Structure prediction request, 455 residues.
Amino acid sequence: MGLSIIILAAGQGTRMRSNLPKVLQPLAGKPLLAHVLATADELAADDVCVVYGHGGEAVKAAFPAANLRWALQARRLGTGHAVQQAMPETPVANQVLILAGDVPLLTSATLKRLLAETPPKQMAVLTVDMDDPTGYGRIVREHGSVHSIVEQKDASVEQQTLTEINTGVILAPGDKLKGWLAKLGNNNSQGEYYLTDVIAMAVADGIEVHGIKADSSEEVMGINDKKQLAEAERALQARLVDELMTQGVGFADPARVDIRGTLKCGKDVFIDVNAVFEGDVELGDGSRIESNNLIRNSKVGAGTIVHSNCHIEGATTGRACEIGPFARLRPGAELANNVKVGNFVEIKKSTVADGSKVNHLTYIGDTEIGKGVNVGAGTITCNYDGANKHKTKIGDGAFIGSGVELVAPVEIGAGATIGAGSTITRNAPDGALTLERSKQKSIEGWTKPTKKGSD
Ligand code: UD1
Ligand code: CA
Prediction:
């Protein structure tokens, strides 16, 4: 039987007190809705439809993927009304799974279990037991099966003591669902069209409704405000770090690391405290990330050490490199093997070949550095003339003295030595010592200025 997924995301999210629509609030670096869509993706549905409303255009724009359907709920008249907006184009022969856009921690494993445990043409509700069920719809069971769902505001005192609640995830046969939705009324305490009322309709039609329990209330938590967002962030981080530790990654403190994207690690990787990983990051076998590093969309090679306090973005390193402390690798920084980049060095859109060292206080931009090069302290590649960027090439085995400016476009030959303090504006030949300095002079009889008397 085919599967259609409808994701409810028309809520206003007023309690976020934000200009950003609720489902676009970031969790582990991705919008809340992106997590739900990723989970939906793992279920390989025929069809996924997002019901949007408030701030809808921004939500749509954030997910330009073609294989999504969007249904506008212009007025927010309740969850039943929201699902109804998605029904006209939903293939009714399918099972329809309804998810909420603000429940990001739900796993595909739980949903697969729900799908597997519900025979075709029957119905299921994902439930959970809560210590404090206040505010949620309560699951009313009879002879084990779900009989109805009653909302907090409509529940009797006795029903309010029930601790099994509706997570909002409902599975129903499409054709039946369509019929029930059409019959929904809004005669309840909130004047809303409740999706949950279809449960009693199903039971009346002789359809069995399975109440399937989620393993933890954390997994099904809905995000309504910044406190819950932060809580979900910690829970998700713990989950991500847990998976990595299972794979053998070492952490100095599993609670002091943040993964906002995908972190792939080899064997024997060690990560110290306060490392933040964003986007797609790969850490090779035996690499070490010391404290306080931000690494975004980058690859760190096997055996490489990133010392404390580096900022690394869009960069790659080969094997056994040493980066930092306090280094900045910007997009297009490509280091080969055994490269050293030391403190207060910035490298942008440049390649550094095997065994080269750029150890102190240096800017390298739009540059090709050969093998075994030593770049002295305080070297600057002057790559920008105010209008255009130009390239610098430094040949294998060259030695650049301290405090050198290389004014691009310029090439330094293999094995060349550039004298400290030079401003190099023309190509320097292979093997030679090139320097550009005025002659040093000492002026005899020169007298130091003296301090003027105060008046
Ligand atoms: C709903 C359920 C309740 C359940 C709870 C779980 C109903 C009537 N009640 O309650 O049983 O315990 O979720 O969190 O279904 N939405 C729309 N359009 C609307 C209304 C809601 O798209 O007109 C979306 C929201 O954006 C949200 C989801 O539906 O993603 C749930 O809405 P919410 O208002 O949080 O539901 P509750 O009334 O709290
Ligand atoms: Ca509500």
